[in-house]
Amino acid sequence: MYSTKVSIFGAGGTGGEIAELLVERGYEEVSLIDVQRDMAEGKALDIVQSGAMIGSDTRVLGGSDAALATGADVVVITAGIGRKPGLNREDLIATNALVMQQISRSISVLAPNATVIVLTNPADILARIVFEETGFPSNRVMAQGGILDSARLSHQISRLAGVSHKQIHSMVLGGHGDHMVPVRQLASVNGVPALNLLSEEDWADAVERTRFGGGEIMEKFKTHGAAVTPAYAVVAMIDALHSPVSQIWPISVRSGGAYGLPEDVFIGLPVRISRVGIEDVLELPIDAAEREALKRSAASMQATYETWKNTTARDSFNRASRVQSR
Asked: 2-143 has which CATH code?
């Protein structure tokens, strides 16, 4: 269906699920890249053989060599350590930032024209690191989060209002995590404002269950988080990147100053996306409380990023000082 090469760094649960969905859609080639070579190779073999059942001729490769990403059109990053009970997404940054830097250096050489989608948490902050490390234009670096959170909100509206998922549209902006911003006036059921069908208490419940939806799933699994819905969210972005006409999705992108946010912050915003990448950010008339919540979300991510940056600079200085003193 698509003459496109997609490379996925991280062959765990979500990476494998993304690969499966891409095979179902008939993408030309999918590569799974993971430090655990045997797992990546085995998963690739398992997935490619499903092509005989569904009539897909997608090539599926697996291994530990970053060279598998050579010439990729789209690079998805799911690699790194995942959330565990008791850990916030921001707690993961020290380890996962190093993973992003290493992968970014590889793809900037091997796939200089690729569009990069970051799924590893904390996705918004790590997308900023990938943007800086690769030097790619901002319309080709993004993170997933808003689509997943919007799906969770839509599910909660369906549950509370007793209506079909098919008729529900919602949009969650802000950071992917506790600082997400569900937008009330953008939640609807076949054009009917969702709040016409929900009480204030129902809406508050839907928001609460959405905000902590990932943690709820992780508590059940014990060792890892959600994989299926995040994979569908990433594939929706990949499909949009092959659309000749614009699609509108909530995606974490460089704000560029939209909504009065710091220009360099990556945060979930409503965007037009198509085969040219991110076309622009849509400045929608959200209410004052939501605008302030969006600013708080951005401020939180800016602070976390600066803490990481300052810590990294201090550690680099200390290492250099020790070498010079020898």
From this structure: 3.40.50.720
